[in-house]
Amino acid sequence: MFNKKWLATLGMTTLLASSILAGCSGEDKDTTSKDAPKEEGKQVEITLAGWGSSPEEAALLKQVLVDFEDKHPNIKVKHEVIADQYMDVIKTRLIGGEGPDVFYLDAFEAPGLIETGVIEPLDEHMPEDFDAADFEAPLLEAFQKDGITYGYPKGYSTLALFYNKAMFAEAGVEVPTTWDELREVSKALTKGTDVYGFGQNPELARLMFIAESKGGEVVVDNKANFADSKVVAGLQPYVDQALVDKTAAQPNQVGAGWTGEMFGQSKAAMVIEGNWAIPYIQNTFPDIDFGTAEVPTIDGKNGTMAFTVAYVMNAASEKKEAAATLISYLTGKEGMETWTSKGFELPSRKSVAEKLGYDKDELRGALVAGAPYATVWSDGTNLPIIFTNFNNQFVSAYLGDRPLAEALKEAQEVANKEIDNN
Fold it and tell me: Where is the chain membrane-spanning (predicted)?
């Protein structure tokens, strides 16, 4: 989900704001906007833009849109797939007054785009029985500002602990429930450089909840704060497991592209991954017998990351009624049930997750359990700058080139200088 190129610039944001200012001289009953166009009226065509997906996901979305058009014959949906540089294309089209009526927006990009005013507030457009309280709270809050909702999440994934059952049985160890246990179990599971107990992802998108586990904050007042001693203390054990214990490694150290592949190749007995890894492992490495569990606690506290995408409306759309009707169906109980029925994405509505049985699913239950306490990958308009600078310097500490505190201090200074300059 976050292997895409997230390109967000303040210059683009300023242009978006300026263009807007210049232009301003599950059930049938709960899937229709309260200001929806009358069915007997002239047919309206609206555009829905998103990035590409697997053939299976594309087929699911197509079915949801067919169902929607059957229920709303006066609304035709033109689905546009933007294959490359999605956010750059969306921003450019918004600036040019040619933005789609409805489009995908990742939580990572949401604060910056909401700030420009190009996203339509949705609260007043939704039907009275839309039941916004049914959404997992952290997911919905990622698309809110000052209590106003600008997007409704179409689905999500948290992170869970994936473990190789055969390796655990051979080592005679139990699935860890705390981070201290994970470190100890990793020692029994590691076999030199052939198999590591734990496959790691040394990037902020995966580490934010760990960085904040000791009470520190990665972002304060929309600026980098990861040189804080509490943030360093949260991340130090993660680095030490690789450098001191030598029971953890990142994928490229064993010739893998990502931790899911590292796990599937049996080069790591445990990894922390998202819902997307389940079908990947099942299809690519069918002989691997694996289980999932909630991410081990740190100092008695639960933590994980959540990645989510919402449907949002272009504030400049001339077809807001139809666009709102589409959003309310896609993120309503009926549309969401169809969209998430194959488990490629988890339902952001609690009732749909329960109806589909994901909350009790052997592999997905741990992911659903993490949603209420997850840290959503979104934190202010400057997170793209903060994210890039953190990753650039953190890897040097992870590889043992210099102390963690020193690397994070430099990363914070560079990030904040860049933010100030912008």
Answer: none
Residue 292's H or E segment, with its range, is strand 290-293
Neighbours of 41 (CB within 10 A): 11
Cβ-Cβ contacts under 8 Å for 417 (sequence gap 6 or more): none
Q: In this prediction, what percent of the chain has a pLDDT beyond 70?
A: 90
pTM: 0.90
Average pLDDT across the chain, whole number: 92
For residues 231 and 234, what is the distance between their CA atoms, to the nearest angstrom?
Answer: 5
CATH of the domain at 410: 3.40.190.10
3-class secondary-structure state, position 401 = coil
54 domain residue, yes or no: yes
Residues 273 and 399 in one domain: yes
Q: Do 81 and 223 belong together in one domain? A: no
Residue 324 in any domain: the answer is: yes
- Measured in degrees and rounded to the nearest 5, phi and psi for residue 154 equal -85, -15
Considering the domain architecture, whether residues 301 and 172 belong to the same structural domain is answered as yes
User: Burial of 29 by CB count in 10 Å (0-12 exposed, 13-18 middle, 19+ buried)?
Assistant: exposed
Domain coverage including residue 105:
10-156+308-376
Residue with tokens 């997911």: 139
Structure-model confidence comparison of residues 30 and 77, the more confident one: 77
Residues making up the chain, counted from first to last: 422
> What distance in Å separates the CA atoms of residue 286 and residue 95, rounded to the nearest whole number?
47
* Ordered alpha helix ranges (H), 143-266: 165-171, 179-189, 204-211, 229-240, 259-264
Total domains in the fold of the chain: 2
Q: Look at residue 132 and tell me if it is in a domain.
A: yes
pLDDT for position 41: 64
pLDDT digits 0-9 by tens, 21-42: 333 333 333 444 444 444 446 8
